[in-house]
């Protein structure tokens, strides 16, 4: 051992007293050669080995007998499962607690029972979607080649089939022009948007359509010629099953609306109602020979309408007002509202007994049903719609571009909305949202070429009573939207038809299909507003 300081080794042990503390010195280096690598390399030899070839044999074995056995251990008498142990309850303390809180609990329960905070509220388990999507763009190329327009749309009783009628609303030789009724089953796996499931050729323009409310294959149409026809869409070869033909009872002007009415005498039967600009509202019954026979009728006469214009003369000399639209109350089957060419909306009753006139050759006398005339639009009324959630409210729209919200209890509108500069062709209440409605528009700037810009407006009075919640562009060009219908069964669907011959099926977001809390109360507040 030694001390190594400044690179110098010194012997261990005490130093002589006379020696210096430090002294310089050098020592020769020592080399030690490693024998490990050389010894290892000497022992390494390259060798190889090969095992004998492995033999394999494939064999299959199958037992001849099979036996199932089960083993169940016996439960120990001393072992008692935890879930069978009796829970120890201090019933005295529990009773004392319940007695102490009884009054407070009953008070809260009574308060909750009387509360209306959650009236009309339904839990929404789906994600909210604020968009409106176009699911289908349907058309019949042959009709589009003839520049025919979609004049009406209707959903069948199941909500899976949409039908449209083709005709013309702007000009041309309507009386002789061929047109079509087309249907598409949207649930069909091989749906072709440009190839309808059924195409019915019609010799006259079809102005309106209505599926039967409970028989999915029956659809009624009103023609430009004044006739009514009922088709059975399940009969592809000869779908016509009833028609009025051209008789003295037939309308003398185009039929602009058809509706199915329940037959009061026969529970399982329906009658057909038609509306025309000849001023007549006619109710038809089905005969066994395929004819539609007139059962009863009404006529809108000028004497029941103040300051009436757009009058037509009947053979007897009476002045009649052209009827363009009609909507029955959802609460009283005798009450209905009509829109007329003179700009008025009229409250009417099927129970009216005042005779209007008895035209020569008519098989039944016609009654005058009008009871009240409401403040008019600035032009013809094109559409009316009674609220499915309130017995007194209805909407109307017309060529002045306004939507009026009316109460049957007063003549002045509760709300007037200016949606378009020129035309509104159709308005419909939502079947599921009390405060939502849709309107179809087209803004015109040329009376000769009928140039329009078409939109579908969705209104929600819960959000605003003055502007639409959503404005949907129906067509890329400048074309009006003539008709629209909500789907009562599949409530998120809305169909709209336009002047390009296209039907678009829109999927509405949950905002427009799920009723909010107190929504009916808000509608009641709107109905109770009184105008000066």
UniProtKB/TrEMBL annotation:
> What Pfam families does the annotation carry?
WD40
Molecular functions per Gene Ontology: dynein heavy chain binding; dynein light chain binding
Q: What is this protein called?
A: WDR34 protein
Gene3D superfamilies on file: YVTN repeat-like/Quinoprotein amine dehydrogenase
Disordered: annotated span: 58-79
One GO CC annotation: ciliary plasm
Name the InterPro entries on file: Dynein_IC, WD40/YVTN_repeat-like_dom_sf, WD40_repeat_dom_sf, WD40_rpt
Task: Spell out the subcellular localization from the entry.
Answer: Cytoplasm
GO BP annotations of the record are: intraciliary transport
Q: Does the entry feature the keyword Cytoplasm, yes or no?
A: yes
Compositional bias, Basic and acidic residues, is annotated for 65-79
Alphabetically sorted, this entry's keywords are: Cytoplasm, Repeat, WD repeat
In the UniProt record, does the keyword Cytoplasm occur?
yes
């Amino acid at each position: 051992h030694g001390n190594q300081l400044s690179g110098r080794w010194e012997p261990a042990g005490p130093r002589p007293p006379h020696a210096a503390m430090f002294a310089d010195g050098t020592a020769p280096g020592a080399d030690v050669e490693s024998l490990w690598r050389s010894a290892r390399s000497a022992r390494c030899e390259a060798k190889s080995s090969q095992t004998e070839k492995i033999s394999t044999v494939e064999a299959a074995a199958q037992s001849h007998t099979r036996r199932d056995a089960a083993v169940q251990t016996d439960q120990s008498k001393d072992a008692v499962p935890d879930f069978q142990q009796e829970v120890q309850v201090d019933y005295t303390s529990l009773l004392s607690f319940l007695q102490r809180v009884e009054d407070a609990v009953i008070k809260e329960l009574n308060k909750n029972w009387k509360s209306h905070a959650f009236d009309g509220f339904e839990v929404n388990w789906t994600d909210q979607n604020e968009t409106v999507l176009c699911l289908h763009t349907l058309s019949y190329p042959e009709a589009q080649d003839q520049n025919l327009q979609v004049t009406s749309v209707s959903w069948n009783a199941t909500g899976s089939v949409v039908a449209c009628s083709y005709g013309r609303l702007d000009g041309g030789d309507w009386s002789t022009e061929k047109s079509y009724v087309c249907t598409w089953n949207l649930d069909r796996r091989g749906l072709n948007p440009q190839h309808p499931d059924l195409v019915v050729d019609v010799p006259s323009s079809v102005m309106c359509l209505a599926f039967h409310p409970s028989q999915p294959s029956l659809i009624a149409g009103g023609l430009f010629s004044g006739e009514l026809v009922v088709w059975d869409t399940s009969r592809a070869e000869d779908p016509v099953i009833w028609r009025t033909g051209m008789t003295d009872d037939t309308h003398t002007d185009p039929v602009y609306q058809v509706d199915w009415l329940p037959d009061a005498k026969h529970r399982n039967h329906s009658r057909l109602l038609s509306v025309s600009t000849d001023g007549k509202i006619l109710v038809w019954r089905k005969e066994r020979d395929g004819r539609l026979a007139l059962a009863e009728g009404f006529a809108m006469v000028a004497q029941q309408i103040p300051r009436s214009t757009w009058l037509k003369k009947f053979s007897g000399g009476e002045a009649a007002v052209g009827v363009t639209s009609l909507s029955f109350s959802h609460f009283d089957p005798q009450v209905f509202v009509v829109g007329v060419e003179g700009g008025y909306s009229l409250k009417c009753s099927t129970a009216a007994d005042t005779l209007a006139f008895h035209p020569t050759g008519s098989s039944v006398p016609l009654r005058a049903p009008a009871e009240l005339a409401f403040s008019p639009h600035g032009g013809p009324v094109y559409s009316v719609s009674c609220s499915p959630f309130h017995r007194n409210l209805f909407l109307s729209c017309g060529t002045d571009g306004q939507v009026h919200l009316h109460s049957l209890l007063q003549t002045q509108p509760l709300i007037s909305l200016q949606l378009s500069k020129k035309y509104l062709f159709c308005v419909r209440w939502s079947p599921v949202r009390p405060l939502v409605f849709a309107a179809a528009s087209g803004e015109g700037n040329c009376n000769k070429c009928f140039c329009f810009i078409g939109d579908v407006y969705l209104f929600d009075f819960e959000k605003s009573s003055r502007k639409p919640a959503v404005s949907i562009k129906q067509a890329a060009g400048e074309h009006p939207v003539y008709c629209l219908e909500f789907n009562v069964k599949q409530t998120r669907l809305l169909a709209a038809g336009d002047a390009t011959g296209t039907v678009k099926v829109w999927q509405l977001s949950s905002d427009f299909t799920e009723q909010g809390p107190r929504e009916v109360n808000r509608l009641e507040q709107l109905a109770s507003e009184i105008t000066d």
